[in-house]
């Protein structure tokens, strides 16, 4: 991979994203846990999130976003020297998700590895790509952030299951002889927060077993208030350090792409930096928190929406489990019009291979399968229906459709919390 070329400049030449088509609204979540659209919007800013279909995985979403970024860069997949996939929801413990992505995008020569830094993963990956390119170790690096979080959530825990969604975003970082504003990079890790967001079982400390699954230790756990405090304290300071390293002042930044976790956290960052909210790109209302995918998904959308133009100074900044945080300040140099080339990549043409003699279980959590299959209230088990009760009605007053075996597997009383009963 090392082509022996000396120090070079690095810049983004391609960008792309992918979001699954199924939408889970706050109203849908009201049918799963004791929550409300009003609570979720006022406390987080999130209105809906995407849910990957049964045939989709983190690798498949990463491959589509990655292929789009390569198309936008105008490269052949084999011109990529290194593939980095940031994720906390890999397809498997091994092989790496990056390895699967390499095959799916049709690359035969890149090194491929995953980056584990939770929601900061894409920023860590981007910093790594910078180092590889500027040192001469690689000419073109594909950096992807991809997550399939909806399969790692406890749908009886209203403090976490309302926050997260699925998706992927990617950039190509390429070598260039043309100098631009030097990248300012700041990465931090604060292990005192290691158990503030974690997934207890499945690792070497607590291998998966019937007991760990029974205790729900295969789901994400989070201390929301502590995480909130860390985020509001750290995001602004990390961004400021990166901006200073780039030789810039905050008022010289045209657009911030912050991790899309909570609108109140983003507002606190803007306040901390003394900047108006117009300088913060926000799309969490439509995707929720997609962890490592959130920054590249937002970056691709911002460029395609005309919010970033050539010569703009941009900051990407994230925080996450670890606690980690990271920020990069850089000058945007690519022509946003190239983004149109992403449309040449069709998701249905990209396949992630599985062994011919193997198939997994149905991966969709039953609570999600039920609400996505049946617009309107979740069907209550027949035992719970009081004789003479009127038929369940959807929010708009439409009678709830009767789920069939094909459209919904009604949740069993044991699998569903009491709060999933049909609202009156
Ligand atoms: N619906 C209704 N009520 C709820 C919900 C819900 N979904 N969730 C919690 N509540 C209740 C609580 O039970 C509590 O009730 P109580 O006062 O009777 O005890 C009340 O609402 C307030 O709860 P708080 O936890 O104090 O609510 P807060 O305003 O802190 O908001 C939130 C919670 C949204 C989770 C916030 O703390 C937050 O955003 N934290 C940061 C989380 C984050 O960004 N995580 C991602 C990290 S990135 C990564 O690496 C994965």
Beta-strand share of residues: 15-25%
Main sheet specs? 5 strands, mixed
Counting helices, strands and paired strands, the structural category is alpha/beta
The rounded Rg comes to 22 Å
Mean pLDDT: 89
Low-confidence spans: 1-5, 379-424
How many helices? The count is 12
Ligands and ions found: acetyl coenzyme *A
Number of strands: 13
Structure write-up:
Helix 3 (58-73) packs across helix 4 (97-104) and helix 8 packs parallel to helix 9. This protein is 27% helix and 18% strand. Mean pLDDT is 89; it is low at 1-5 and 379-424. Strand 12 (313-320) and strand 13 form a beta hairpin. The radius of gyration is 22 Å and the shape is globular. The strands form four sheets. The chain has a five-stranded mixed beta sheet with strand order 1-7-6-4-5, with helices on both faces. It has helices at 26-30, 37-44, 58-73, 97-104, 121-134, 158-161, 210-214, 224-245, 263-273, 284-287, 294-304, 366-373; strands spanning 9-18, 22-25, 48-51, 82-86, 111-115, 140-148, 166-176, 184-189, 197-198, 221-222, 255-258, 313-320, 324-331. The protein binds acetyl coenzyme *A. Acetyl coenzyme *A binds at residues 35, 39-40, 43-44, 118-119, 158-159, 162, 197, 222, 224-225, 227-228, 231, 261-262, 289, 291, 320-321.
């Amino acid at each position: 991979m090392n082509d022996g070329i000396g120090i070079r400049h690095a810049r983004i030449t391609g960008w792309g994203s992918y979001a699954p088509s199924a939408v889970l609204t706050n109203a849908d979540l009201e049918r799963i846990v004791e929550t409300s659209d009003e609570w979720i919007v006022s406390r987080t800013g999130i209105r809906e999130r995407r849910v990957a279909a049964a045939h989709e995985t983190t690798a498949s979403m990463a491959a589509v976003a990655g292929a789009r970024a390569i198309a936008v860069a105008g490269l052949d997949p084999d011109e990529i020297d290194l593939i980095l996939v940031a994720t906390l929801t890999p397809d498997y413990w091994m092989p790496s998700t990056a390895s699967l992505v390499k095959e799916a995008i049709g690359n035969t020569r890149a090194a491929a590895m995953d980056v584990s830094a939770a929601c900061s993963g894409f920023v860590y990956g981007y910093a790594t790509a910078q180092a590889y390119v500027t040192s001469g170790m690689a000419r073109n690096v594909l950096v992807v952030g991809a997550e399939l979080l909806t399969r790692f959530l406890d749908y009886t825990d209203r403090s976490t299951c309302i926050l997260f969604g699925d998706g992927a975003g990617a950039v190509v970082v390429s070598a260039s002889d043309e100098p631009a504003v030097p990248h300012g990079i700041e990465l931090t890790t604060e292990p005192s927060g290691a158990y503030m967001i974690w997934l207890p079982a499945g690792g070497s400390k607590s291998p998966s077993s019937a007991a760990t699954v029974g205790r729900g230790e295969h789901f994400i756990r989070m201390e929301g208030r502590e995480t909130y405090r860390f985020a509001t304290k750290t995001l602004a300071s990390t961004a400021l350090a990166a901006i200073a390293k780039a030789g810039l002042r905050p008022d010289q930044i045209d657009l911030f792409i912050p991790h899309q976790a909570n609108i109140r956290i983003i507002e606190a960052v803007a306040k901390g930096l003394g900047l108006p909210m117009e300088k913060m790109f926000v799309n969490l209302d439509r995707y929720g928190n997609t962890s490592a995918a959130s920054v590249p998904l937002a970056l691709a959308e911002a460029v395609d929406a005309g919010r970033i133009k050539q010569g703009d100074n941009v900051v990407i900044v994230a925080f996450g489990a670890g606690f980690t945080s990271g920020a990069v300040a850089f000058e945007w140099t690519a022509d946003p019009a190239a983004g149109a080339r992403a449309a040449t990549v069709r998701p249905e043409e990209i396949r992630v291979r599985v062994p011919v003699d193997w198939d997994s279980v149905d991966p969709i959590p039953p609570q999600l399968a039920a609400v996505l299959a049946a617009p309107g209230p979740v069907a209550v088990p027949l035992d719970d229906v009081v004789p003479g009760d009127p038929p369940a009605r959807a929010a708009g007053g439409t009678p709830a459709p009767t789920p069939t075996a094909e459209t919904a597997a009604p949740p069993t009383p044991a699998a569903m919390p009491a709060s999933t009963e049909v609202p009156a």
